[in-house]
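Researcher: Can you fold this with flavin-adenine dinucleotide in place?
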Amino acid sequence: MIHPVAVIGGGISGAAAALRLAQGGRAPLWIAPDLQGAFKPGEHLGPAATPLLKTLGSDAMLRAEVHRHAHSTYSAWGSDVLLERNAIVHLEGPPTVLDRAAFEQALTEAAVLAGAERISQPVSKVQVCDGHWRLQVGSQSLDAGFLIDATGRKALIGSKYATRFQADKLCCQYALFDRPDRSPLRPVTLIESVPNGWWYLSVLADQRVVVNFYTDADLPGFDPAEFEAHVFQTNAIAAFLSDNALQIATPATRLTTNSSWIAPAIGAGWAAIGDASAAFDPLSSHGMTTALWSAIEVSDAYVAQDRKRMQAYADSVSKGVHDYLRARERVYAQEARWCESPFWARRLKSIDDLGPPIASQASERDPECLT
Ligand SMILES: Cc1cc2nc3c(=O)[nH]c(=O)nc-3n(C[C@H](O)[C@H](O)[C@H](O)COP(=O)(O)OP(=O)(O)OC[C@H]3O[C@@H](n4cnc5c(N)ncnc54)[C@H](O)[C@@H]3O)c2cc1C
């Protein structure tokens, strides 16, 4: 049996695509390994996501008690002064600080309820066979006519059949902080720049606190064991942690968070969505919104069998990346205190002066039999 369409990836983009396809009467084969309730960083959902969740009939998910509204974000960026960005300026309502695992679980349940046929194992091999895709999933071989690549930065299909670009080497170390008494903390999000990068802190709805440090992967970082010592060298973030007697509760974990994308975002018999098409600096809080948007665009184009619409999606991804790189340049240019430090010096250069982003060529050409 050949499944007309398969979605690979169980994050936000994969779950949203599986749900949208099923809502459009094209319930997909959905290959989505289990997250198993593990903590996943990346919790700040921008207000632009709300209309997208409404389109999916899923905006009520944001009202669950495990999430909280992010009414205020404070940042010390460009000076030591903490400035408040009040959520009242957002027409669509405030941003949300999510419990990521709970949010992804709710989207997963909605997709399965709508009819997506889920397999909770990873794809280990992809081949083109007689004009369709053959996927190895555990001991099963599964065939599909069209693939939606929602495998995040790995871009299982996109990195094979398109060119991958990378604009920087940003990486993140994160840890959770906690205290025995989980009485309510002030619900804040703090951002603080330092000579070798920037720190981020956010209070989760369950009163734990997530702390992230961002720097470049090739710069001297610090041993995960030293994470707590380093965070207490900041100003605003250290003050919040010590005033509330918060202590590190998980080992610091390192993740890639560079700005990277593929071009084109679609090919013969496939389309990439979410981070698999374009992955952004978390400072932008764009990732999850783009994951939802791209899932809806590609699924609707597939349901309508509309090639022009699919091409318009790929064009929007490429324009979106261009606009994002300009915006990123403007935001980093606002911090001019450490022009000599490599982290900031790299970001103070205009993208026009940096030359083309690092590109890695597609390792295989588009399978012509799938045009
Ligand atoms: C530290 C950090 C902080 C962030 N902060 C924010 C933030 O505040 N706001 C925001 O909007 N965004 C943030 N982001 C970005 C956001 O998390 C991503 O944009 C979002 O997760 C993209 O969703 P996705 O579904 O495309 O990819 P992912 O969430 O990466 O999901 C990909 C899925 O594909 C699966 N997969 C991979 N390979 C295979 C395979 N071979 N077979 C089957 N499945 C496979 C994985 O198991 C995974 O479930 C942050 C990211 C990081 C790392």
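Model: Folded with flavin-adenine dinucleotide in place. The chain is about 25% helix and 30% strand.
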